[in-house]
Amino acid sequence: QVQLVESGGGLVQAGGSLRLSCAASGRTFRQYNMGWFRQAPGEEREFVVRISGNGVMKDYADSVKGRFTISRDNAKNTVYLQMNSLKPEDTAVYYCAAKAGITWPPRTWPPGEYDYWGQGTQVTVSS
């Protein structure tokens, strides 16, 4: 069992930055690929970025490329999402998710293929 707790959300003006953190329980954190998703009101949960267990492989949604950066510290059981140049359309609840395994297929995993989810943290970007 893995528990995920996100933090770092808040209200920021357009063009600003936020850094989200996702702390995981357990001693096998490096065996999990991690992902960040977001969900705006009335919208489906949307893929943002994923990172492999060793932190080498990363995939970003086109909408955040060049602005968001994912990283992880396996010694601290934590994955981070640095968000720069934020836009009002980035407003959503952000969730981190964990998927066990060492494979890294070209396609990103849909939400239903992740094993564990955090409770989410609200990010609001004002114009």
Could you walk me through the main structural features you see in this protein, from its secondary elements to its overall organization?
It is globular and about 40 Å long. The protein contains no helices and 11 strands. With 127 residues, the protein is an all-beta fold. The model has no long low-confidence stretch (mean pLDDT 96). The protein has strands spanning 4-7, 10-13, 18-24, 32-39, 46-51, 58-60, 68-73, 78-83, 92-100, 116-117, 121-126.
Overall, the morphology is: globular
- The total of helices stands at 0
How much of the sequence lies in strands comes to over 45%
Structural class: mainly beta
**β-strand number:** 11
Low-pLDDT parts are none
Largest β sheet strand count, sense and barrel closure: 7 strands, mixed
Q: List the helices and strands in order.
A: EEEEEEEEEEE
Helix content: under 10%
Question: TL;DR?
Answer:
The chain is mainly β and 127 residues long. It has no helices and 11 strands. Strand 4 and strand 5 form a beta hairpin.
Question: What keyword list fits this structure?
Answer:
seven-stranded mixed sheet; 127 residues; single chain; 11 strands; mainly beta; four-stranded antiparallel sheet
Record the SSE blueprint.
Elements: E1 4-7, E2 10-13, E3 18-24, E4 32-39, E5 46-51, E6 58-60, E7 68-73, E8 78-83, E9 92-100, E10 116-117, E11 121-126
Parallel strand pairs: 2-11
Antiparallel strand pairs: 1-3, 3-8, 4-5, 4-9, 5-6, 7-8, 9-10, 9-11
